Amino acid sequence: MSGHCHTGVKICGLTEEAGFDACVENGADWIGFVFFERSPRFVTPQHATRLAQRERGQARTVGLFVHPTDEDIARVLEHAPLDVMQIYASDERARQVADAFGLPVWLSFPVAGREDLPQSCSVQRMLIEPIPPKNATRPGGNAQKLDWSMLEGWQPSFPWMLAGGLNVGNVAEAIRRTGVPAVDVSSGVESAPGIKDPALIASFVRNARTAGRA
């Protein structure tokens, strides 16, 4: 499946300047900051702000939260100007957050099989990814790949994004097979946990865009 003239690209888990600058230089659509302390990609709101104050280009900033309280979010927004909030929570909680803060909300939606795919979306976007392994200490960023066959022919009426185990070598195939309008990568463009590789970022964006135009 194909036909998207512009596949959206989100690079998540930025912690350092070289990676951030590579996202901007290569035209990533979204740059993600992880506000979840158990992640190797965790950043403080102040650190995220320092990075975001570099030349931002057209990229929008996305803050990732795991089951946050309103206070958690408010504390981050005090320092970090976010364009989007990506949340691990229930559908109902995601709607509450959108109402409370007036920002677009993406709901992270882990699935195991086609029967788990969401039928509707009450926030701005659904982020489809694999269910984490039983021993995982965090809900995402585990470099697990989703079985893309479950997405073939799935054409939801709402915006969505694919995450989980994507990298330079497989992103084009993922886009061609699923027709996904946007992709999210974190560990797949890293030289070490939390350290992005500028060359991999460049290749990932290029491969995603080329596949989207195919």
TrEMBL record:
Family matches, as InterPro entries: Aldolase_TIM, PRAI_dom, RibuloseP-bd_barrel, TrpF_fam
UniProt KW Hydrolase keyword: no
EC number, as in UniProt: 5.3.1.24
GO biological process, one term: L-tryptophan biosynthetic process
Catalytic activity reported: N-(5-phospho-beta-D-ribosyl)anthranilate = 1-(2-carboxyphenylamino)-1-deoxy-D-ribulose 5-phosphate
Associated pathway: Amino-acid biosynthesis; L-tryptophan biosynthesis; L-tryptophan from chorismate: step 3/5
Keywords annotated in UniProt: Amino-acid biosynthesis, Aromatic amino acid biosynthesis, Isomerase, Tryptophan biosynthesis
Enzyme superclass (EC): isomerase
Keyword NAD among UniProt keywords: no
Residue ranges occupied by any N-(5'phosphoribosyl) anthranilate isomerase (PRAI) domain in the UniProt entry: 9-206
Cross-referenced Pfam families: PRAI
Signal peptide: none
A GO term, aspect molecular function: phosphoribosylanthranilate isomerase activity
PANTHER family: N-(5'-PHOSPHORIBOSYL)ANTHRANILATE ISOMERASE
Family under the similarity heading: Belongs to the TrpF family.
Entry protein name: N-(5'-phosphoribosyl)anthranilate isomerase
Biological source species: Acetobacter okinawensis
Gene: trpF
